Amino acid sequence: MRKIIFLILFCLYSFNVSSEGYDVFGIGIFDVKFDGSEDNQSTDFRFERRFDNTIFDIGPESDNFFFLKPFIGLEYTSDSASYFLTGIYLEDNLGQLIDGEENKIIFSPSFGLGFYDNGSGKDLGNDLQFRTTFELIYKLKNKNRIGLSLGHISNANLGSKNPGVEIISLSYQIPY
User: Which pTM value belongs to this model?
Assistant: First the structure.
């Protein structure tokens, strides 16, 4: 419990909570394996707060691909597994990336780390877990967005075992 409180306090003090960004509400399938080997599939519920303030700008000024921004999040499964995380993400307009003209589709990869409690769900071998996600987002006329993502959670071989999980989810994103 102290780890969870520490992580929440770290996130609140690390990022500017008054900045603009998106609240992301997602639902998906936890432990998807494309070869049929999943052993503890469940429903994944996700909430993220994505902040729009840049914490690292490592690219040329003309290309927004390298503006890394912070997020905090929570995932919870129908098997009572929970994952509290923080990390960085970036967004790039696919039209601008491919043919130089902006369109309504955004590519958004992210990387995070956090505390995982397996509840009665899949044991991932360690409390500390890392998550990578690739997401395609469609911008709606009202500035809300719909996203489709594929993520992977793993302990990076820090634990006694490292089964990892893949998550496919659909999200609805609301600006704040």
Answer: 0.85
